[in-house]
Amino acid sequence: xxxxxxxxxxxxxxxxxxxxxxxxxxxxxxxxxxxxxxxxxxxxxxxxxxxxxxxxxxxxxxxxxxxxxxxxxxxxxxxxxxxxxxxxxxxxxxxxxxxxxxxxxxxxxxxxxxxxxxxxxxxxxxxxxxxxxxxxxxxxxxxxxxxxxxxxxxxxxxxxxxxxxxxxxxxxxxxxxxxxxxxxxxxxxxxxxxxxxxxxxxxxxxxxxxxxxxxxxxxxxxxxxxxxxxxxxxxxxxxxxxxxxxxxxxxxxxxxxxxxxxxxxxxxxxxxxxxxxxxxxxxxxxxxxxxxxxxxxxxxxxxxxxxxxxxxxxxxxxxxxxxxxxxxxxxxxxxxxxxxxxxxxxxxxxxxxxxxxxxxxxxxxxxxxxxxxxxxxxxxxxxxxxxxxxxxxxxxxxxxxxxxxxxxxxxxxxxxxxxxxxxxxxxxxxxxxxxxxxxxxxxxxxxxxxxxxxxxxxxxxxxxxxxxxxxxxxxxxxxxxxxxxxxxxxxxxxxxxxxxxxxxxxxxxxxxxxxxxxxxxxxxxxxxxxxxxxxxxxxxxxxxxx
Length: 546
Ligand code: ADP
Hints:
Elements: H1 3-18, E1 22-27, E2 32-35, H2 37-43, H3 47-50, H4 65-75, E3 80-88, E4 94-105, E5 111-120, H5 122-141, H6 147-158, E6 165-171, E7 177-184, H7 187-199, H8 209-216, E8 220-222, H9 227-233, H10 237-246, E9 250-258, E10 261-270, H11 279-343, H12 351-378, E11 387-391, H13 392-409, E12 413-425, H14 427-443, E13 450-457, E14 460-466, H15 499-509, E15 513-518, E16 524-531, E17 533-545
Parallel strand pairs: 12-13
Antiparallel strand pairs: 1-2, 1-5, 3-4, 4-5, 6-7, 6-10, 8-9, 9-10, 11-12, 12-17, 13-14, 14-16, 15-16
This protein binds adenosine-5'-diphosphate.
Adenosine-5'-diphosphate binds at residues 436, 440-441, 444, 467, 469-472, 480, 486-488, 495-501, 524.
């Protein structure tokens, strides 16, 4: 070649030759006429082997119609751009490609052939599939907190997508690896593997595979299992026969670990697919094992937290009962002393402090009861002792009467508006609800008036307890009905944050509802609705003023 045109052609040839993409020229009857180095690398045929043969040597059987379609389009002068397909290498391996095919014309404009530019998109496809798989794995692992079940589902979505076999082993309490699941898309194969495992349990001291990955916390991979390995690791002829039957090709064993805590091992094995694992497969397996490890850690923390709550509730129950007995004794003795002090002139001065001790004991007994209720309710033992004809108005008056002195001490007043309502309820438990709500109205009511209203609505009794105190911010209004939740500082107001939770449980056990309406700084109204009421029209208005 000489002159500028010759130089241009030489440049062009050099560019084509140094391209990473396969660039192939062919005639309209599919005969290969040029084959660059990229094509040699991608398809494994040298230029001298490929030139003169048909493009069809690259087309897998299941896609044999594609070449005819391509030629038809070329004859119409059309090109094909970024067509994603599969072609076969010289060694039979399938590769994912993106093909761009354009017609080549002679000087007269006639189509005489086509250029193929083929780009290997195996990695890109793998990355997209890996992302899709990881999203699926994440979803499966989040399905439940029962990790043995979740891991079984996980194994079943990994086969046959990334491996023919998937096994997951987890360490038991003694630190020994135990199988959780062995998955293969063909159940008969699973049975064969299970038999192999039963008859020849894996050796925990093995220097390869899951045992080694578990011991060292390091992933193990064998791209191609050499036949000699099966021979040398077979314990007897039968063992060898079973292993050969499985036809194992390649394996990866990846620790399922969080930080330095190894929970178990994820094993992926290829067999009938003939697939050989490589670094990108190992990377994907590691990501899957990491997701599995986080899921296991989460569900273990959940189990531990549940156990801790159980231990706390058991403790509360035992401690509550133990505290109850000496408190009852103290209360009896203090009441006895109080009576003596009132009767005996010489010690009358002690009446006041004795009464205060009595009130302190009452308060202590209430707190112990709250704790006992927590363990009862948590264990699902809130049994109602319903009575047929409970007069709710009398109950309200009764509770209000008990608080008369306390209201007076706080400098407030209590106003009652009640209608006569009867129903089938547990009077002791409803007393507890009223007591909680009223003592809160006093505690948080800043000494301002408190109103209690009992009315009927349909077959429901509706009880409203309104104070004009500190009120509750909107963000706290739902939360305060939960266990141990408070919207005030313990420094300013004593309490455990249990009263409303217990009240809610009691009301709900009666199939009723409890809600609060409030504005911060302007008080709160707690509204309890109880179904199953018979309401009489007679309305009474009663009031105490301190
Ligand atoms: P405790 O009063 O022991 O804290 P409760 O379960 O009875 O427990 O109440 C939970 C929280 O709800 C209280 O800590 C308080 O922040 C808020 N609360 C309850 N009743 C009232 C009320 N009448 N006014 C303002 N805040 C209230």
